[in-house]
Amino acid sequence: MIIILGFFVAFAPRYLPLLFFSKRQIPDWFNDWMKYVPISLFTALVVKGIFISSKYTLVTNGNLALIIGGLVVILIAYWTRSMAMSVIVGLVTVMILTMII
Q1: Residue 24 phi/psi, 5° resolution?
Q2: What pLDDT sits at residue 101?
Q3: Could you write out the three-class secondary structure of 44-70?
């Protein structure tokens, strides 16, 4: 019973917007605005991971490898426009810098 209820809880937020918007024309301004949502969410997650500790305090030192890795990711994302390439290069960069620093 819990699995079935979990299915509906996970399925409803994905299906209802499709059902609602499949019969309506989405305004162009909304589509233009939604292009920025994945970028802003990804940025928020990365910044939180680098500068916020597990106790939700600002961390300004000790994360040099993560900061350099973040800068490398920004450059790779700008040049390649590929989220996958950015993540892979960023992970490898942080891994190497963590071993060196």
Answers
A1: -125, 155
A2: 84
A3: HHHHHHHHECCCCCECCCCCHHHHHHH
Domain extent listing, the chain: 29-100
Residue pLDDT, tens place only, 32-64: 888 888 878 888 888 898 899 888 899 888 889
| Euclidean distance between CA atoms 66 and 47, whole angstroms | 10
The token pair at 95 is: 């891994």
Per-residue H/E/C for the chain: CHHHHHHHHHHHHHHHHHHHHCCCCCCHHHHHHHCCHHHHHHHHHHHHHHHECCCCCECCCCCHHHHHHHHHHHHHHHHHCCHHHHHHHHHHHHHHHHHHC
| Structure-block tokens of residue 71 | 């800068």
- Over 90: is that where the pLDDT of 31 sits? no
Beta bridge partners of 52: 58
